[in-house]
From TrEMBL:
Residues 648-663, 706-715 have a biased composition (Pro residues). This is Xylosidase/arabinosidase. Residues 499-515, 522-537, 579-589, 664-673 have a biased composition (Low complexity). The lineage of its organism: Eukaryota, Fungi, Dikarya, Basidiomycota, Agaricomycotina. Residues 456-735 are annotated as: Disordered.
Length: 763
């Protein structure tokens, strides 16, 4: 795409990822789940706006959910939001990014392109898409993030595909939820209309993660029915990938003991991707896992593929897509239940050992978990290099890249991703020796996207006109690879020690470079709908994502979205109803689809909708969280940006309803064990404490994959109201009673707000 095509000092051009095949690609998971107060409409009245960075604001007794701290040095000011209660050692305010901001999402995909990562599996949590369970608000927000991912992938020449996480949804409802949402994505959101949606042999790639885990209660017949529905109702067909338990082949440990699931994996899916986070934590245990698990998996799949080539009935070709991760730590997320730095990164050696062990088996696709997973410490995105750059807190600690004693640049793990991608394209061999020197010299041999090398297309009006001329002559996108091109390369540049950062002082005029943006598909990006005045158009041009790449990290705040009136940074007057048009027209984003008033649920849910469940790690009966530490009610606060005296905190759970148990990550024994342990021997055997939510059927909570379920008063998802709330038509008397009770709660909140205001004034 025009935003990212550049020439390095060897005359090589970085091309777009090929959306026509999943083969020979390094893909990453993309959560896109971080939100901040003031970044857009909240999930509901009274919601404080923070998702995943904090359970709720620290000044109100909240806590951070991350150990790793992101490096924010390259984000522009309009992308950053103040984090209440956190300061740097020099007293400066701490800021964080939001996954709702289009510039931020494009920046993340920009880094994918810079480092040769082909694209992302966008995580879509099935429980959050269940409208019949009252989850419209969070479903709409996930749709919004999906729009930003599509736009970023198209602009940055990356591919994307949907990966459903089915954990936490009752087994008897999962089929209905998936079928409804997949049709919503195809017909309402038009995800398959994107030229950058990943396909294999013309079939859209879609992944279902979480079926067949121990104690999940899934029926193999239902899983088959879901895959059949998706194949029959996806235009052009579907290439379906299974995110399976690590022990899928032997039906032990984290896998359902029903042997029928092995047949399901081999007969109903096109690819198998075993979930390995938490199954090993250092090079030694990874070597054991490769010998005992990966080797046997590949042998079985190769044998099945030979049968498929011979025309054997029920045999289909299957791809094996292993999962690798850079390390992990979820201490803050688990409130200290999980070990600090439980899977040390070892300066990249842990990740490199995984890459070496999977590449030696000839795999053609690798799945890196996860690009933006700061919560549990598996993120590849930039992390601050040194402890001195971390926020200070009396109650929580944070982690920098020097935790293991290595002095590394913040983009170190994205560099390792690039080497992995190059090996899949046949440009590099992954050897057993960790290439530390080559990684430190990374920018001497890889494309750099500074203005000194390539002029970014939104820098001037001429660039926009050149793009428009090129749009008419675009053909299909070429394969993603490095090729020697007949273009003039810039002068050699000495290798920097860290990722290059564009600087306004280094800007070169448009006439100083012979490079021109590659052609763009005009239908691949949203149409700007900005006002027509020249002064306004100039500002819109700078921030319009239909014409630009990523701006300088110190760029002015052009076209920033309007702040909520209560946002701490909103010191000047704010137009009424700032979210009346969302997303803002300045973003140049696709408008959301119109509401569908004709939708009526066909049944009332019997239980509250499931919260986002973490992907299970291997836990051998470790102690579960049984302390039932409910969040205490909090008085209104200046940090609860959207709190309202006329509405209760959003939403509330019954006071007698405990939060679900969670299994600590460190309960798993990492020492090599027998290759075939007896079924469920001491594994997930501990019963849930009395009162656990009945709708939480599924794999136990674990260390890595997603945060623990929300507690009352933290960041619950919409629809987590008491089960079976009466309606005026079904039960008028109970409905009237519930409305009276809600009114009492609102009056109490109003009284509390008044008391707090009076106390503050009379001090």
């Amino acid at each position: 795409m025009a935003a990212l095509s550049s020439v390095d000092n060897h005359g090589r051009m970085l091309k777009r990822a090929d959306p026509s095949t999943i083969q020979d690609k390094f893909m990453v998971g993309y959560q896109g789940w971080f939100t901040c107060a003031g970044d857009g409409p909240p999930l509901g009245p009274g919601h404080h706006g923070w998702l995943h960075w904090f359970n709720y604001p620290i000044p109100d007794g909240g806590r951070p959910n991350t150990d790793l701290w992101p490096d924010l040095s390259e984000y522009s000011p309009s992308e950053l939001y103040p984090a209440p209660g956190l300061k740097y050692p020099n007293g400066e305010q701490v800021f964080l990014f939001s996954s709702r901001h289009p510039r931020t999402v494009q920046r993340h995909f920009h880094w994918m392109a810079q480092h040769g990562v082909d694209g992302a599996f966008l995580q879509r949590f099935a429980g959050q898409t269940d409208l019949e369970a009252g989850n419209e608000a969070i479903r709409n927000q996930r749709d919004e993030v999906g729009d930003r991912v599509r736009e970023a992938a198209e602009k940055e020449g990356r591919v994307f595909a949907i990966m459903y996480d089915v954990s936490g949804v009752p087994p008897d409802r999962i089929q209905r939820v998936i079928e409804h949402d997949w049709m919503h994505l195809i017909h309402d959101k038009g995800v398959l209309d994107s030229p950058n949606y990943l396909r294999e042999h013309g079939k859209a790639v879609v992944t279902f993660w979480g079926f067949g885990f121990a104690d999940s209660g899934h029926d193999p017949a239902v899983v088959r029915a879901i895959t059949t529905f998706v194949r029959n109702n996806t235009p052009g067909g579907a290439y379906i990938m299974a995110g399976t338990p690590a022990h899928w082949r032997t039906s032990v440990s984290d896998a359902d003991t029903n042997p029928e699931f092995v047949k399901v994996w081999l007969e109903a899916f096109d690819a198998i991707s075993p979930w390995t986070i938490g199954r090993y934590h250092n090079e030694e245990t990874n070597n054991w896992f490769e010998d005992q698990k990966i080797k046997g998996d590949v042998e079985l799949i190769n044998e099945r593929n030979r049968l498929a080539e011979q025309g054997h009935p029920n045999a289909r070709h299957i791809d094996y897509i292993p999962v690798v991760f850079p390390g992990g730590s979820g201490h803050n997320l688990s409130e200290g239940k999980w070990k600090w730095n439980d899977a040390p990164r070892q300066g990249g050696r842990f990740l490199w050992r995984q890459l070496y062990n999977v590449r030696r088996h000839g795999v053609r696709t690798i799945y890196g978990a996860m690009w933006d997973e700061y919560d549990e410490g598996t993120a590849y995105l930039p992390v601050v290099p040194h402890k001195s750059q971390l926020p200070v807190s009396k109650t929580h600690k944070f982690m920098a890249l020097d935790e293991d004693g290595y002095d590394l640049p913040s983009d170190w793990y994205m560099r390792v991703c690039c080497f992995a991608a190059e090996s899949l394209r046949g440009e590099r061999t992954i050897t057993e020796t960790f290439p530390e020197k080559e990684l430190r010299d990374y920018w001497s041999s890889h494309p750099r996207y500074e203005e000194g090398i390539s002029r970014l297309p939104f820098d001037d009006e001429c660039g926009k006109q050149n793009q428009a001329a090129d749009q008419r002559a675009e053909g299909p996108p070429p394969p993603y690879n490095f090729d020697t091109e007949g273009v003039r390369a810039s002068a050699p540049i000495p290798p920097p020690s860290t990722r290059p950062i564009s600087s306004s002082s280094s800007t070169i005029s448009s006439g100083s470079s012979s490079w021109q943006p590659p052609p763009i598909n005009p239908s691949s990006r949203p149409t700007s709908s900005g006002p027509g005045s020249s002064s306004q158009s100039l500002n819109l041009l700078v921030d319009d994502f239909s014409r630009q790449s990523i701006s300088d990290g110190k760029a002015a705040r052009f076209g920033a979205p309007p702040l909520h009136p209560n946002h701490p940074a909103a010191s000047r007057s704010v137009p009424p109803e700032p979210w009346s048009q969302w997303p803002p027209s300045q973003w140049g984003a696709r408008p959301p689809p119109p509401p569908r008033p004709t939708y009526t649920p066909s049944y009332l849910p019997a239980a509250p909708p499931p919260p986002l469940r973490p992907r299970p790690s291997a836990s051998s009966g470790g102690s579960q969280f049984g302390d039932d530490d409910r969040a205490r009610p909090q008085p209104p606060s200046q940090h609860q940006t959207y709190a309202s005296a006329s509405s209760p905190p959003f939403p509330q759970l019954p006071p007698n309803q405990p939060y679900p148990p969670e299994a600590p990550y460190q309960g798993y024994s990492y020492s090599p064990g027998p290759s075939s342990p007896p079924p469920n021997a001491g594994y997930y055997s501990q019963a849930a404490p009395p009162g656990a939510l009945s709708y939480q059927a599924g794999p136990p909570y674990g260390g890595y994959g997603a945060p623990p379920p929300p507690r009352p008063g933290s960041y619950p998802y919409p629809g987590q109201a008491p089960a079976g709330r009466p309606s005026p038509s079904s039960n008028p008397l109970e409905y009237a009673t519930s409305m009276v009770n809600r009114g009492e709660v609102q009056l109490k909140n109003l009284a509390n707000a008044g008391t707090k205001f009076w106390n503050k004034r009379t001090k």
